[in-house]
Amino acid sequence: MARPNHNSNGSIEAEVPKAKLSKKNLRESLWLFQYIKPYRVKFVLGLIVISLSSASTMAFPYLLKQLLDSITTKSYTNYFTTPSGIAVLMVALLIVQMFISFMRVYLFTQVGENVVADLRKDMYKRMITMPMDFFSQRRVGELSSRLSADVSQIQDTVTTTLSEILRGVLTLLIGMSLIFVLSTKLAILMLSLVPILVVIALVFSKYIRKMSKNTQDQLADSNIIVQESLQGISNVKAFSNEGFEIKRYSKSISDVVKLAIKSGQLRGLFISFMLFSVFGIIVLLVWYATGMMQQGLLTFGKLTAFVVYTVFVSGSMAGFAEFFSQLQKTLGATQRVRELLKETPEPVSINDDPLFDQYKLSGSVTLDHVAFRYPSRPEIPVIKDVSIHAKQGEQIAIVGPSGAGKSTIASILLRFYDPEAGRLLFDNKDARDIPITQLRKQLALVPQDVLLFGGSIYENIIYGKPDATKEEVEAAAVKANAHNFIKGFPEGYDTVVGERGVKLSGGQRQRIAIARAILKDPVILILDEATSSLDSESEALVQDALNNLMKNRTSFVIAHRLSTIRNADKIVVLEHGVVKEAGTHKQLLEIEGGLYKSLSTLQFESSVN
Ligand SMILES: Nc1ncnc2c1ncn2[C@@H]1O[C@H](COP(=O)(O)OP(=O)(O)OP(=O)(O)O)[C@@H](O)[C@H]1O
Ligand SMILES: [Mg+2]
Fold first, then answer.
1. If you measure from the C-alpha of residue 402 to the centroid of ligand 1, how many angstroms do you get, rounded to a whole number?
2. Which of 69, 265, 567, 606 is most solvent-facing, going by the fewest CB within 10 Å?
């Protein structure tokens, strides 16, 4: 999901739901500090700098007062009490401010960016090592928004919100004390008004936040329409449903507008109320103060400083509502990030371990009364009872009607999922006793629908064996009957494919996947309809390549076209998750009324016609 990185416009709000600012949630989010820990020196330095910055900001009105009151002073004790002396001090303070502001941004950017990078790396690592089931229950968009929106929200807090809060608190504390020092009477008057205003503002803004959340939810809904219709654009066009989609989107957007206008009205009301109240209070204070000045209880400079401090203080009070909402969002984001990091990954090894000798497979595979259902759909038993034994180097064909569970068996062999009953054995060893990475290193899958990565064809093939040489890559492509069509592209092996590149046909993609598998040179090969998208001529060629590839290794071939598996050592006929028949082509044809025989007759007839 594309979204602009941490900016404070609506897009973050649309995607980062909030959490309650409860004690428990706050404690939970302290977990985040373990990410700040490596950069703690800079972080603490940053906090110190912020304190200095607040202090120097607060000193400014005080100097202003000195400057204004110095006009009426008769005798100066030293240079720094003269008007020019005070002006020099103020300029010096400004220079200090400059330096401090730079340091603040610099330090917090460093901490924030590093924290976020560490967090993103950890999250990505966790995501990519999660078992397959994790992905079937989540949408990719949702996962990638964990990495983008949620983490950006956290970044905003680490880099800005925390420092703003600290600054706000300091401004409030220092400002309040100075206000009292300047004039207790005025301060008490001010304090009897401002807190009431703050309470009203809090209630008001809570309501506004609720309203704008509705708008954001609605906006998110309409974004889903855009995403889904663009992802399935060929469907939309094939069914001439452009008009339908436009209407659907327009309606959704109109709802957004309605809600947004309503919450806009409320915001407008809020802002005008606040403006009136804040300036009303100032007018009242100044009016009262003029009375005091007439009695000689207050100097002009003091009044000016008082007003400026009051603005500072009420400004920081008002800011707390925003901090509050930011903190809530960050808590929500932290929770979701933490949830992800709490998930248990697959025990894959992410280091580039060599293949350990004790796990080298010879290639015999046994499925022993295996049963399985997808965790995401536990009510449907997909594999009920499947036993298949493949001796080293044998070619096992799996055939059967669509939905029988053939691809599921491929997934079980790759240990994408574990059987819920029965055993999966490699070389008579339970599959679970072989480290998952060591096992998968020795298996290769040419899947039913090949997805290429964004990158060159070369990169896509070498994915099968990252340390292969250029010659090896090309040799694999030649064997997969892919070399010729690749050479046909102007950029040859450097042709960029994938979402942003050249679109390859289904058959071309399959051949690249086959080249990838050839390059991997696995002990056990799994072909799931590997030649289904090829025309008869290329199929014959690729089949030839596959036959070569299958020599000297155990292979599982899932096929609809029975002609391609006639020579298999064993054909397993699967239906509704149960092995119906098993044997050689010849044996299976001898079963009167058998499933294989009838499938075979059907296909033979249709190919004759
Ligand atoms: N990830 C999944 N989550 C839940 N159910 C699934 C999943 N993948 C497949 N299924 C279900 O499992 C059953 C078997 O699917 P499978 O893909 O193994 O069939 P298949 O024999 O390969 O069919 P085809 O010949 O059409 O490829 C189907 O009913 C399917 O709906
Ligand atoms: Mg399938």
1. 8
2. 606
Give the ligand whose atoms come closest to the C-alpha of residue 575: 1
Residue 390 has pLDDT above 90, yes or no: yes
Contacts 24+ apart (CB under 8 A), 72-81: 72/299
CA-to-CA distance for 563 and 602, rounded, in angstroms? 12
Q: Is the pLDDT of residue 494 over 50?
A: yes
Å from CA of 402 to ligand 2 middle: 7
Rounded CA-CA distance 41/22 in Å is: 29
Residue 440 and residue 139: Cα distance in Å, rounded? 25
- The answer, yes or no, to whether any atom of ligand 1 lies below 6 A from the CB of 18, is no
Binding site membership of 170 for ligand 1 (Cβ less than 6 Å): no
Q: Tell me the CA–centroid distance for residue 123 and ligand 1, in Å.
A: 29
- For the cut 60, the answer to whether the pLDDT of residue 383 exceeds it is yes
Query: Does the structure show a pLDDT above 90 at 599?
Result: no
184-231 and 162-182 helices, crossing angle to 10°: 160
Over the stretch 259-283, which tens digit does the pLDDT of each residue have? 999 988 988 998 898 889 888 888 8
Residue nearest to atom 25 of ligand 1 (CA): 402
Ligand nearest to the CA of 411: 1
- Tell me if 382 CB under 6 Å of ligand 1: yes
Q: What is the pLDDT of residues 28-55, one digit of tens each?
A: 778 888 999 999 999 999 999 989 988 8
CB of 532 shorter than 6 A to ligand 1: no
Torsion angle, CA of 576/578/583/584, rounded to 10 degrees? Answer: 30
Q: What share of the chain is helix, strand, coil (3-state, %, to 5)?
A: 65, 10, 25
Q: Please give the Cα distance from 459 to 496 (Å, whole number).
A: 9
At 69-94, the pLDDT tens digits run: 888 877 778 888 888 888 999 999 99
Q: Which tokens is 347 given?
A: 């025990």
| Ligand 1 atom nearest 377 alpha carbon | 4
26, pLDDT greater than 80: no
How high is the pLDDT of residue 501?
63
* Nearest-atom index, ligand 1, CA of 411: 18
